[in-house]
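Researcher: Next entry in the queue.
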Amino acid sequence: MNQPLQNTSSPRFLPFVLIGMLLIVTTTGFARMAYGLILPYMEKDLGLSVSQGGMLGTIMFLGYLVTVGLSGLLAVRWGGKSVLLIGGSSVIVSMFGLTWASSFVSLAPFMFLSGAGSALVFTPLMSIMLGSFPERKGTVLGILLSGAGIGMLLSGILVPFLIGQFADWKWRAVWLCFGVLSLVVILTALIILRNPQSRTSGSSDKDKPAWLKNKGLMKVAWLYFLIGLAYLIPNLYQTGFMLVQGLSDRTAGLVYSVAGIFSIVGGPVWGTLSDRFGVPRMFVLAWGCAVAGDLVPIVSPSVPGFIISSMLWGSSIGGLITLIQLKAAQQVTPRVVATAIGFISVFYAIGQMLGPGLSGWIVDLAGNYSAAYGFGAAIYAVGLGMTLYAGRAEQKLAA
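Model: Structure for this entry, 399 residues:
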């Protein structure tokens, strides 16, 4: 029987949260974010051009975009755990497939499957965790979303190590190792995870809100779009910005690692603070930190300035994504949380698709990285203004 889990003191709390975090590590950190680290080795070994490597990344993103909107609907119909296991299995198949692929044509379908599978894991997992531990939603989501940063950190360690240890297999050894680790995690999830409530009963019309008419959810969706549009800017351009300022490769790498560490701890910290002080207050503060994170390097393009920027944008990204999931969950009934998260994630994915190209065009047009950072700060400022305006409107309505 699937019973609600209401208390974080339950002995299931720690296993649930840890396996959830590991699912994010493998299906987001390993499956999607590590691709950029492995790509140069794949290009060299298979004779792929830079444009072909970029196209493979686009294909993976397309897989994510196609399925992320459906993941919530499938979770409501079939149960979050079932959809999650399908998505995780798809990621595993893609990793093992990439291990043996030998050309662009054979790589492409597995890249698509990797993106699609990761989307089928993320949204149902959020739904399971929010329904299982409603008293500590912020803390739980923050810990889960830190898995992406942990996956990036582990990838940075494992990729060069495995390529160095397995000279004959090289990048193939990386995908094989990731596939084995992901298989262990998904089998553990099969044993540990369960749906927070019964999914056998049919959904009623009340459980199917018209998303476009749900003003609160649409506001959250547009805010998520702004996050997707701006959050990759420092990730993409910080190293180049630092090198232009005459700083060394080593310094740039060390400063970037600061952002990685703060992105890991940012989600849990912001989530815990939201449980204590409320989502609205923390949401405003997170937007403010994001604005400051993009402005500091413009004002002070120095090592201290970049370190402060890394601390701010690294932690605030984890906070904004955690808090946006909580805001979305507040707009709908618990039964359709997965559907709502899937719906707003489409806006986020579109923002991710447009952001890098638009910011790159701005860099080329202006001839410097400061313009891209200014663009990012302006986008975050719009998000901050929308959040403040919506908060005041809600206060007036409540009064």
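Model: The CA atoms of residues 216 and 331 lie 6 Å apart.
Researcher: Noted, moving on.
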